[in-house]
Prior knowledge:
By secondary structure, the protein is α/β, with parallel strands linked by helices. Helices cover 40% and strands 24% of the residues.
Amino acid sequence: MDQLLAIRAFARVVEAGSFTKAADTLGMPNASLTKAIQALEAHLRVKLLQRTTRRVSVTQEGAQYYEKTQRLLKELDDVDASFSAAQSKPRGHLRVDMGSSVANLILLPALPAFLERYPDIRIDLGVSDKHVNLIGDNVDCVIRGGELTDLSLVGRQVGSASWVTCATPAYLQKHGIPQHPSELQEGHSIVQYLSTRTGRGLPLHFEKNGQKVEVAGGRAVGINESNAHVAAGVAGLGVIQTFRYAAAPHLASGALVPILEKWQPAPYPFYVVYPSNRYVSNRLRVFIDWTADLFSALD
């Protein structure tokens, strides 16, 4: 038995919650992965996993074994990295997931320069406003906005984005220009961004001199994709609150007009997030640094 391979296989099944997904991420046949874990259980003389037709669960002994072996695997990765990092040129495959506005307006326009600098790195992008399972979906990292709440993930803040509340000139001519956020509650239509987790409309936030106001009512349309959300505002469907970088071309052309500019909510933080138990490869490290440079230029 290759004990190190078996331990890594076991860890990946625990993280992915599936033999099939674990086998895919490790690039090995499902049968080989199953055989490796069975050999590990026979060697330890304990049952590590309970497998049914629908799901895989970890036994109490399996949870203890996973926790202890994770420390060993991380130390081993650190040792390997200390010898190879100085000599290796960033290379290999990165799987990155991000929201659509980040992809279309920030990352993709700059990506040719990154690939020219690091020609041996190949990147697969997942573009969606829906959150992914980093382990189960075999993703190296995600670019994610908002505060981190998942303790199993590590995030490096790479920047923040300012907000703008805006509407078309025709809409404002018809409905009037609000002077206070509370005026949006009546007589105005709001195009709300819908949470991809809950499906609920996210409220508009405003802040001025320490006073905070939240506006949740008056929804005309709800949209769960960031580019379409801006497009709805440009179409004149109502007031939108979005990232200034996303609305910038339309603000510059006059298609959208900013309102309530003295009521500016706090900037929205963006992170590059990856699993806490995963070794940060040289290629991932340079990608994170490059992403931080991109976000530092945001308004």
